[in-house]
Amino acid sequence: MSTVPPRLRRRAAAVLAAAGVVAGAWLLEDGATARGPAAPPVAAGDPAADLGVSADARTPLARSVPVRLTVPTLRLNAPLVPVGLDAQRHVEPPPLNRPKVAGWYAGGATPGSAGTAVIVGHVDDDHGAAVFFLLGRLRPGDPVRVRLRNGATATFRVDAVRLYPKDRFPDRLVYAGRRGTAQLRLITCGGRWDRRDGYSANTVVFAHLAR
């Protein structure tokens, strides 16, 4: 993890796994804006009960490194950079000086290949909105596209968007996915923010490969 100025030392943690295999914890260090990030529905009771994850996922694509993420509903068009684990086995977030960049966890599936691909991004910083500030506005059926280095584009459809308190984050539900299918998760910080503990929750987008 790179050195962070004192005003940006605000951490939000969730356990990271890829295709159901725990890889470590990822930390997003975000500031806060006056209006706060977009808020999805809060998960209540059984977190799996209302996800509606599609069983009609398409045949997975060949593995290829992702280079760009586009979400038409949010007018989001962002470059992707690979992120890995630091010495504490925490997944490194995208660079703090590039808040409009999203990070793909390179230790897991590539978007569109079999397994669960994970993309993380900052929600905001001390200067304002970051790449995933509006993530909570996505709704089921919205498209998410990932362009791959081999020239293909993996198009996903959103199944659900949920807000999970950090102390009740459902690791296996978020990261495992259906066996043999291509799944995508977009993750950022959400919920309430305070100076001592940072954000109280994680916003998670569940999506499946549609074409």
UniProtKB/TrEMBL annotation:
Top-level taxon of the source organism: Bacteria
Keyword Signal among record annotations: yes
Keywords, sorted A to Z: Hydrolase, Signal
Name of this chain's protein: Class F sortase
Coiled-coil regions, chain positions: none
Alphabetized NCBIfam families for the sequence: class_F_sortase
Pfam families: Sortase (PF04203)
Signal peptide (from-to): 1-27
